[in-house]
Amino acid sequence: MISNAQRPAALVDDPKLDRYRVLVAQAALFRGCSQGALDDLVRRLQIRTRLQGSLIVAQDEPGDAMFLIAQGRVKVALFGENGRELTLSTLGPGEFFGEMSLIDSRPRSANVVALDDTTVLALTRDAFSAHLKAHPQTAMNIISELTARLRRADETIASLALHDVESRLVRTLERLAREEGESADAVGLVLRKRPTQQDLANMVGSCRETISRTFTSMIKRGLVVPRGRALVLTRQLLDRLSPGPATAAAL
Predict the structure, then answer these.
(1) Tens digit of each residue's pLDDT (9 = 90 or more) over 126-138
(2) What's the CATH superfamily of 6-159?
């Protein structure tokens, strides 16, 4: 159940300055900024904490800040009126969200929910605007990041339109295993902690019952092998994958 439980926000204090300076410097959005610019950004940050399951930002609400994840994981999702959910992405420490509303002054385009107890660093609209005016390199970084997100969106659209549920599930598991798992050359890829079937359904745009049937079929055919909470994606499965279709907007 989503709640808005939170602890009060606080400005970053001096003992934590070095820790957050490193985090900000490593974020793709602020890569290439001078040390002075990073110090200025860090001093403008606010620390906000959210409990697991809490809504950090809601779709269609006004956006007055962007957020850099310091601890925990979040999911970016769309909620349908019928209760269905589509998970667009999962983000972790060092990644950011919420910058689009600061750029175009439009409402939030999606919901962001804390998957763990999460700490985010908030940068307000005024601080963000002042930084952009003084440091144009950040604007170039934003263009690069938005382009990468457009490419991922194209891949999602193409997958939903051109692939069946099993193909979408296979591609999602393969992506998760490469991002969060480990390679085992003899057997394939190992996803150390597989998502629940409901989470997978949300990721591939299906329902839990369909994912359950598809999973059972894949296990029987030896394409995946459960190992407790882990999941092995066999070489037989990986060999079936081919590059996804290109789309015009990603060219």
Answers:
(1) 888 888 887 777 8
(2) Jelly Rolls (2.60.120.10)
- Report which residue type is found at 145: E
Spatial distance between the Cα atoms of 92 and 99, rounded to a whole number of angstroms: 16
Contact 61, 38 (CB under 8 A): no
Domains 6-159 and 165-250 equal at CATH topology level: no
The helix (H) or strand (E) run that includes residue 66 is strand 65-71
The pTM for the full model equals 0.67
Which residue ranges make up each domain of the chain? 6-159, 165-250
Q: Which amino acid is at 194?
A: R
Identify residue 170 by its one-letter amino acid code.
Answer: V
- Cα gap 169→175, rounded to integer Å: 10
Cα–Cα nearest to 50, from 71, 29, 77: 71
CATH architecture of the domain formed by 165-250: Orthogonal Bundle (1.10)
